[in-house]
Amino acid sequence: MNKTTTKACTFEALLDNFHRIPFEERQSRLANWCDLDPQELQILKGVNALPVETAEHFIENVIGVFPLPMGVATYFHIDGRDLLIPMAVEETSIIAAVSATAKWVRRLGGVVTTRALGRLIIGQIQIPRVNQVDFTLQQLNFHKERFIAEANLLIPGLVSRGGGVKDLEFRALDREDGQGQMLVIHVMCDPCDAMGANLINQVCEGLKPSIEEATHEKVGLCILSNLVDGKLVTSQVVIDNIDPEIALGIEEATQFAKTDPYRAATHNKGVLNGIDPILIATGNDWRAVEAGIHAYVSLSGKYQPITEWKCEKNEYGGTRLVGEFTAPLAVGTVGGVTMLHPTAKLALKILGVKSSEELARICAAVGLIQNLGALKALATVGIVKGHMRLHTANLAIAAGASESEIPRLKEELAQALAREKKINVTRAKQILDALRQTEKH
Ligand code: MEV
């Protein structure tokens, strides 16, 4: 984790005016804080950020690499530690919003805590059409310990690190087509610091012959489940003495999302605004996490918000706001491309995490704070003003402004936004034309 005391400067000095200082100074403060060398700073600038030769090993038919901006979210204080959060994302205002919200929570003395609720990922082995359900279940239970031992022989390295298959669970499910039952074996495995997809898939396929032999049934699919509810992570934000009107607006926003899936989808997108960019920056499989979260919030049969905000009276008669997030977050700090992608490696270094659990817990906290920022804006001034003010730079580029014209056009666009309450590329082009005309005369 980022240190707060041993650095040449304090966290406050590191962050002072951080979003306003020039890029080179931002990099130099970062280098000081995270002990980055000049070569690592070059990587962050995109130089050898992902060499084509490395990319060729990652995927097929490589034709290039795809750059995304990477920033750091600031002012985070999670589980008592100050953190800089690397985020790779294309959307304007995500980093500004989450940093401003983290700063606001800090100023109000809010407390952000996290916990991991489990370590086990799930591999599924399907027996699609079971002839004798009772006999098959009996056989599976009888051979359970042998299957676990066999599975662990397939992953000796993981077992030596304390991980491996810990349990098997058996589920009999009625088939949707009404044609009897299917059996599903859940292989519960501790992947240590890996996300674990490749290893659990190999374990499931490796167990297939023994299961078929013991049950006299034919095994179908062998694959991990992304609904990793054996590996839930939870985060909580508690803010005391918050403006009751803001707190109530945030609570009402939760009720809206709980009542209406159309709102819940957008609510959850706002939470994922905080999580996906960290997953991308650290080379993690964000599709897996997204799929897991959406499945988890649908378990009741109704799509639900992944966070919940409630106001209560505190002991001094003021208002306390409490927010919670709980979801499966199967991430890795080893395996996959995390340690092979030069920029992902650096993102992990900036975060200072030593384990996948720490990374998952940070994601849970940032998602919750990102959500808080969005709900606070929506419940008060609305989202358009802040977002569009920051979006002026994109509009200026889209309108064709040169590097030297951008600052002036941004300013004019901000004024137009305040006056006309909306701006777009067409308006940006009109303003740019007008500016160029004035320049000529
Ligand atoms: C935009 O990227 C995210 C929001 O729509 C989230 C929300 O509505 O809660 C602002």
Describe this structure in words.
β5 (164-174) and β6 form a beta hairpin. The chain starts with 10 loop residues before the first helix and ends with a helix. α5 (94-107) packs across α13 (356-379). The strands form 3 sheets. The chain has a 4-stranded antiparallel β-sheet. The chain is built from 16 helices and 10 strands. The chain folds into 3 domains: 71-117 and 231-380, 3-hydroxy-3-methylglutaryl-coenzyme A Reductase, Chain A, domain 2, CATH 3.90.770; 121-225, Alpha-Beta Plaits (2-Layer Sandwich); 385-440, Orthogonal Bundle (Helicase, Ruva Protein, domain 3). By secondary structure, it is an alpha+beta fold. Bound molecules: (R)-mevalonate (MEV). (R)-mevalonate binds at residues 266-267, 269-270, 273, 374-375, 378, 383.
